[in-house]
Amino acid sequence: MILAANRTHNFSAGPAALPTEVLQQAQAELLDYKGSGMSVMEMSHRGKVFMDLAHEVEQDLRDLMSIPANYKVLFLQGGGKGEFSFIPLNLLRGKARADYVNTGLWSTGAIKEAAKYCEVATIASSEDKNFTYVPAENSWKPNRDAAFRHICTNETVHGVEYFSIPKIDDEVPLVADMSSHILSRPMDVSRFGCLYAGAQKNIGPSGLTLVIVRDDLLGHAHPLTPSVFDYTQQAKSDWMLNTPPTFAVYLAGLTFKWLMRQGGVAGIGVVNAHKAKLLYDAIDSSNGFYQNHVTPADRSQMNVVFFLGNETQNAAFLEGALASGLAGLKGHKAVGGMRASIYNAVSLTAVEALVAYMKAFAAKF
Ligand SMILES: *Cc1c(COP(=O)(O)O)cnc(C)c1O
Fold first, then answer.
1. How many domains does the structure of the chain reveal?
2. What is the percentage of the chain residues whose pLDDT exceeds 90?
3. Which of 60, 177, 230, 298 is catalytic?
4. 258 an active-site residue?
5. Which residue in 106, 258, 298, 330 is the catalytic one?
6. Mean pLDDT over residues 107-132, rounded?
7. Is residue 177 part of a domain?
8. pLDDT tens figures, 174-193
9. Contacts (Cβ under 8 Å, ≥6 apart) of 351
10. Which of 188, 262, 308, 362 is deepest in the core (most CB within 10 A)?
């Protein structure tokens, strides 16, 4: 048994930290899941043991997110990036155009991929200021004939988050890439036509992709959509048209149970807000030693991007951090600097340790 005390404070953007309790439970059940005499990863996805598990995992997610009954929950593969293609394939429904808001690297990627399938209207963008804010909704130029309207509600690379859901009053369904902040606080699923997330940021291991889609949008996938990525076909077969990533589903389920023990999304939301405030306060009170360029109201609670005022100290900062048991702080290459990803599984203790290190490092120079 590996001691939990040996675990480093992991600020990786993804794949990312999982709760230690979850990994310990997986370890304890690895060879013999609930008396079945085998590991979850060795059993048929069509057998009763796994089917029971799958139903419970889905129900727990429905409870955690208060997902209305007219939404399908699908546990698929292909990653967040796969959804950049599967969204237009499933949701264009014969229409020629879709609206996209561009707030950073991930929405840019979604736009590029969607342009293979339809005319993309970029109805708002924050590229003019290096993706440091969410464009005000009254500046958007929405199209009423768009098949859907796509946003990325947390830009993992740029550290920009939507704290309110767009309210545009038309029939165009809102679609959101929530990969890096799903389950981080309460969110009203009923305001979306569809939302999706790769699991490896805030849910579980990589290899699992979550799609939540409203019933009435199903049934119109493009005929060339691969069956395993056709939401309608997957919904009809309870997301078991082919073998789902069974072990990843199991681990996601353990994370959902853990999240319930933290008081659900409301409980973890309070902790997440506190963690983010500690870190942004440390940056803002450093007299420019550390800097963050995101408009304060749009600063992500999950991905805190910051720069050293003197960038020649970057290597020393990262080296010292690692020596202090703080890993994964290097910023994305598109942006540079530092990034602390403080997902649900990153504890308040870890954030406090990071803040203490940042203060000590600044004091030394
Ligand atoms: C990580 C991430 C993705 C890409 O996920 P993959 O599973 O690597 O394809 C897409 N969107 C956002 C917002 C992300 O953070």
1. 2
2. 97
3. 177
4. no
5. 106
6. 98
7. yes
8. 999 999 999 999 999 999 99
9. 275, 278, 279, 340, 342
10. 308
